[in-house]
Amino acid sequence: MNQTIRYIFLVLLFTFSLNAQTIYLDEDFSDWDNISSLYTDSENDGINIDFGNLKIQNDDKFIYFYLEVGTEMNFQSNNDLVMYIDADANSATGKSVDGIGAELEYKIGEREGKYYYENNSETIYHPNIGLISLPTVTSNRFEFLINRDTKILDRLLFDNEKFNVLFRDERTDGDKLPNEDGGLEFQFTSAIYSELPYSIDKKDDENIRVLSYNVLFDNLHKSSRKNNFKRIFQALKPDIIGFQEIYDHSAKQTADLIKEFLPDQTWYYSSTNSDNIYVGKYPVINSYPIDGNSAFLLDLEDAGKEMLFISAHPPCCDNEFKRQKEIDHIMSLIRDLKNGTGPFTLQENSPIVIVGDMNLVGYAQQQQTLINGDIQNTGSYGEKFSPDWDDTDLSDVKPFATGFPAAITWYNGNSDFSPGRLDYIVHSNSVLELKNSFTLLTPFIDIDTLSNHGIESSDVILASDHLPTVADFSVKPLTNNHTENDNIPSKYNLFQNHPNPFNPSTTIEYAIPSLDTRQGDSVQINVFDVLGNKIKTLYNGTAKSGKHKIKFDGKNLASGTYFIKMNCGDFRKTVKALLVK
User: Which CATH number fits domain 208-475: 3.60.10.10, 3.30.360.10, 3.60.20.10, 3.90.226.10?
Assistant: First the structure.
């Protein structure tokens, strides 16, 4: 090898060692594909947990782990998984277990551990080692990290160039990794942490900034937290906000407070008698309650579109059944609106955005339903469907925390649960393009960035245990070669009137498909009362292909239920309208 080639080779080798692939915790796992397994455990040698591959990676800030467990389980509860780390790679120190001397014993399912030193021990919890894991829902594999500079009792845990590690399922006859005694040795590399790019400011003023924020039992309205929230909102400047956990204050009171924070904007608001509140720069056309969750039809004005915006807060913790039912109900609403059978009319190709503290800490099925429309309670909520307009899944944003390699949205150092992903922004990728996303975790932002945006390091921690979760979208234009015929409906339809209930008038929309060479179809739209008496003819004539709107004025009618019926050839359909004066 000549000197020039040798020099290039050494430079490339040095560069690779400093820039080895950084792992980002995001439930994706693809960034582990090019990393070799430290150990592959035997199959079918575990009764409960059945270990598979273990991979480990490091940079100058964190140690990353990838672990296959062979069964769907929750990482933070209801398991007997224990991690042992011999931090000084010396079997003569620490707790003796399977041929290593472990300074660190962490019972993952019990969310606590022990630090062993000089024949003593100290109980520790996740903040002591900076433990973070994903996914927060059940899975058969997990990725997690701990801080490389962990100090316990002012003692640096990893003060060696290597460590030994092993995992055990502590149930009787449980599996262990590795099968042999002595643990597995991992040698630290010189890799440097590489931060993911994000922008606290919108990259383009034309983008729509969506913010999901659980403000923890009305903290937004507490005087002791007001300055923290004020700085957060002035830094983020959202366009659409979905709030959760506002129980004791109205949507108007909430909008008035945001107006105080950001006065150079008109703020619209709405709620459906739940803890979910919409505040934003776009008017609300309609709203609809979905159990304890809320759907809002927004007028995007400048974009020339409407948006279905859902703010959700399903039940927490062990309430698996009700959480699945509420997510089923949310998705069934989207299906019905797409099919033209929902409680109001949703224009075809309208952006769909679901945000909120989804409390997804249990079965992974709930997360899957939210994304792919796989409804479980079909007897109550109908069949599964593909929720995006192009009949694909919705897209899950998975924003990363600022200055941190994990897509976490909940952070509470005083809880025995380690940080996780509870808050979601899910959207119709067919009509919305994601431009930027992040969760605001102020303690990990550098001082200059904090100062430039007028925020303080402790702001989000004092404001709530949930992090402000942000996504910036652009509305996709129609693809090339579109003509006016692209907007012609594919079938006859009579849509649900909106608003509904109404007083005194409401809008009715109906659709006529392509008519080939015919000039128009004969259409009749009539209104009947509950006794079947026709009380009004709204339309009787021909209608060309396309979507049409007519008004139903009920100012001279009594409050009550009315039926709007459309006849067009062989097509018949009825919708129910409620007049409330």
Answer: 3.60.10.10
